TrEMBL record:
Ranges in a coiled coil: none
Residue ranges of domain Mycothiol-dependent maleylpyruvate isomerase metal-binding in the record: 11-139
Membrane as UniProt keyword: no
Name of this protein: Mycothiol maleylpyruvate isomerase
Assigned keywords, A-Z: Isomerase
Organism: Streptomyces amritsarensis
Pfam families documented for this protein: MDMPI_C (PF07398), MDMPI_N (PF11716)
Keyword Isomerase appears in the UniProt entry: yes
Entry-linked InterPro entries: DinB/YfiT-like, Maleyloyr_isom, MDMPI_C-term_domain, MDMPI_metal-binding, SCP2_sterol-bd_dom_sf
Single GO MF descriptor: isomerase activity
Cleaved signal peptide residues: none
């Protein structure tokens, strides 16, 4: 089983990194474009706060979001707030989420996430870590994919490779990092395509970030096109 205690510690560390970095911005910077098309930095910060509350809902047995429309409306409503309001909301929502994890509970139980996706409760802290650290990169304020903790990058590559495994629209693909580690993704069978590069570049492609595969080397065919996350 996933070590949720370790992951919760990593969530706290990632949240502290995020808050420290965001506190150095000003109100004008929040309205500037992020790395995510159509979203300003304020949109990302609003999403991170509401995601913490959504995962609190998951722990307490409620729907993660009232609806997709309500989720989007909340982000749009809060995106334009001044910096101090964003910071307070980020701190308070993170504290509420972490407080919920301190209660006695069955970490082996199955919980329901957005869109009917299910997972073990013990995996939810890692999902929150992904939200905080990957969206920190998305803010476009100097924290890059290469700055992510090595453990985070390894686990997120494995998670995303598994996500696209068995998908018939993705050819069987072997992933090879420059440090010698390997993964498999795509449809079943012997790999038809090999994709090689740094762990950060592989993560960028799998997560639809960065140069989206431009710095990767492929063999056996073109770089596969992945479904949207």
């Amino acid at each position: 089983m996933t070590d949720h205690v370790h992951d919760l510690r990593s969530v706290r560390e990632a949240t502290d990194r995020l808050l420290t970095a965001v506190a150095k911005l000003d109100n004008a910077a929040l309205s500037e474009e992020s790395h995510l098309p159509g979203w300003t930095r304020g949109h990302i910060l609003a999403h991170l706060a509401r995601n913490a509350d959504a995962l609190l809902n998951v722990f307490e047995g409620r729907p993660m979001y009232e609806s997709g429309e309500a989720r989007d409306a909340d982000i749009a409503r809060d995106a334009g707030r001044p910096l101090e309001e964003h910071l307070a909301d980020l701190r308070d929502s993170a504290a509420r989420f972490l407080a919920a994890t301190e209660h006695d509970q069955d970490w082996s139980r199955t919980v329901e996430l957005r869109g009917g996706v299910t997972d073990l409760a013990s995996n939810v802290p890692f999902r929150r870590w992904v939200e905080v650290d990957l969206h920190h990169v998305d803010l476009n304020i100097g924290y890059e994919l290469g700055d992510l903790p090595e453990e985070f990058t390894d686990r997120e590559i494995a998670f995303l490779a598994d996500r696209w495994s068995g998908r018939p629209e993705v050819p069987a693909t072997a992933l090879a990092a420059t440090d010698g580690r390997t993964w498999r993704t795509g449809s079943a069978g012997d790999p038809a395509v090999t994709v090689s590069g740094s762990p950060a570049a592989l993560l960028a492609w799998l997560a639809g970030r960065g140069d989206k595969g431009a710095s990767l080397t492929t063999g056996g065919g073109p770089l596969p096109e992945l479904p949207p996350l």
